[in-house]
Design brief:
Structural class: alpha/beta
Number of helices: 8
Order of helices and strands: EHEEHHHHEEHEEEHH
Shape: elongated
Helix content: 40-55%
Mean pLDDT: 84
Number of domains: 2
Largest sheet: 5 strands, mixed
Distance between the termini: 59 Å
Length: about 260
């Protein structure tokens, strides 16, 4: 019986793709693919540490993309779901994709169906974040926003905000994952922050933001309230479109949180 191997990688998407490349190149019998922070090795499997190699990762990316752009997008979106065990599921998904010569629409297969469902969930979260981000102007003249998405969608929303707000500096910070993306008028970079205070859209003011920012928020709140017709409010539909977990980051919901 061929020994099984657990691949340990750095947690990045390029690291995962490198693991896939190594698994195929060395014809490994893969038991699992784990982040190096997990530390849960298989009882009867060997471990192999994978060092991220961008060129090898690109070969996997391009090999799949050239066969099906939708499939590589599905893989990337599902990876960003951070679902437990997603790496091995995606490895299985890729093996099936390669075995079927680029066809990946057999939703009678549980793995294929599950990965597709995960990718759609991440896609919905991406679109929600693109609509729900609320910037506040800091005294450093940077537009700052907190988000707390269910999935790791910062890499997916970067292009949207870079195109929409190309003439101003902005920073979107993921409270849950403790990192952000910063646009400096030239490009977007990933930043790590240690914030002493998480800025919710509360009535209490923060010294980090300009006075004009709070005057603007007051105007926005007054407008929001004045356009509401209480007799026509459908609260169930409203919370379907704007789930309550996002309210603390929305200026128009200042009095509701």
């Amino acid at each position: 019986m061929k020994n099984t191997t657990t691949l340990i990688y750095d947690g990045s998407f390029n690291g995962f793709l490198t693991s896939v490349y190594i698994a195929f190149e060395e014809k490994l019998n893969v038991a699992d693919i784990q982040k190096n922070s997990q530390g849960q090795n298989g009882l009867f499997s060997e471990t192999q540490t994978i060092f991220t190699n961008v060129e090898k990762a690109k070969r996997v990316w391009n090999g799949i993309r050239n066969k099906s752009y939708n499939t590589i997008s599905t893989i990337y979106f599902a990876f960003l779901s951070e679902t437990e065990g997603i790496e091995y599921m995606l490895y299985t998904y890729i093996k099936k994709f390669m075995a079927h010569k680029g066809k990946q629409d057999d939703f009678s297969d549980d793995t294929i169906l599950y990965i597709a469902q995960l990718a759609r969930k991440v896609g919905r979260e991406k679109h929600r974040m693109e609509g729900f981000v609320r910037f506040q102007l800091t005294k450093d003249n940077i537009y700052f926003a907190n988000i707390e998405p269910d999935f790791n969608v910062l890499p997916l929303i970067s292009k949207h905000f870079r195109n929409r707000y190309a003439d101003q500096q902005w920073l979107i910070y993921d409270v849950k994952r403790r990192y952000g993306i910063y646009y400096n008028l030239e490009g977007v970079e990933i930043v790590s922050l240690n914030l002493d205070e998480i800025h919710f859209n509360r009535t209490r003011r923060s010294k980090a933001f300009t006075d004009g920012e709070y005057d603007y928020q007051t105007l926005w709140n007054n407008y929001f309230k004045s356009t509401h017709i209480k007799s026509r409010i459908n609260r169930k539909l409203h919370t379907q479109h704007i789930p309550k977990r996002y309210w603390k980051y929305l200026g128009e919901k200042k009095e509701a949180v």
